[in-house]
Design a protein that fits this description.
364 residues, alpha/beta, Leucine-rich repeat, LRR (right-handed beta-alpha superhelix), Rossmann fold, 3 domains, 5-stranded parallel sheet, 44% helix, rod-shaped, Toll_tir_struct_dom_sf, signal, membrane, transmembrane
Amino acid sequence: KSLSSDMEGEIFKNTVSMKVLDLSYNNIVDLSAPMFKNLERLQTLNLQNNQLSTWRVKVDHMKSIQFINLKQNRLTTFGKEAQMSLTKLFQITNLSIDLSGNQFLCSCDSVHFLEWITGYRNRVVHFNRYECSSTSSHKFNFSDADNSLKLLKKNCKSYLVIYIVTSVAVAIMFSIIFGIFLLKNKWKIRYVIYRFKQRFKTYTGHSIIPQADSPSYEYDIMISYSAKELSFVLTDVIPRLENEAGFQLYIKDRDEPAGISCGEAIMEAIQKSKRVVCLVTKSFLKSTWQDYELNMSRMEAIEDRENLNFVHLIIFPDVCNGSISIQTLDLVRQECFSEYPEEECAFDDFWETLISHIKELNRH
């Protein structure tokens, strides 16, 4: 059985009286932790000139150990468990250890190891001759270990501050970018989430929304309005568009189904309607739910209907004479709007023009 394959320390289980073990020049790459678990009386362990890059062998049970030779290996550091194991032996025995010819890693990650080995330098053979590996990020003079250790700790603190500041700055930057992305795309994200839920309902057979392969709609027009415009809807919109023009309108105060959330009712109405007409007043622009209706209608126009003409704005004088909201700019640029007249004499022409425009759109 080879040393590298012995995970339980079986090779040396019957050599409990051994005092000297010489495994030098064997090209040993690794040794398991319990390799020498039965060698309690061992005094000398020679592992010189091997290929060990990690030391994890348990030795703290060797109460008689005097010398461990790890010269000319590939060790770059000792882990905390290895340090603790050797520290116990340093405290109860006269153990000395030779680590000559190993290229130690001198960096901020190895400060704890360098502090430990410096503290026990009187037990480390030829300590002053040790060198750092060529891949080390910092210089360390083992012949002046105390000052080198102080300098290394100081430099590492500076690096730590830089690392923390940089990390925080990067985190803040990404948070801002992510926040801007969410803010810019919040309506698209909401729309995509709703459509995902809708497709799931379709898959399970619970959706009642018209799908792309069945483009018949329950309503010709969904009217989007704020609560303050309800009287206008009842006295002007319904008589003009429904009674006279024959359009089937969706009026939320009349047609909204019971038992579902307001947001879901809005989305169902949008998708059941051939188009959406928004009565854009100042109270409309201040309303949270009208903002939701307008933006989700825009998303439906862009993502599903692929035509902004799906949404038509009727902009009232109190908005025309003020500032156009940012939500309506793209619709205004695409001329998907009409201005409601201030003079009563122009009302008939306005409604006739709007009805003709909608009928013309429906023919395409």
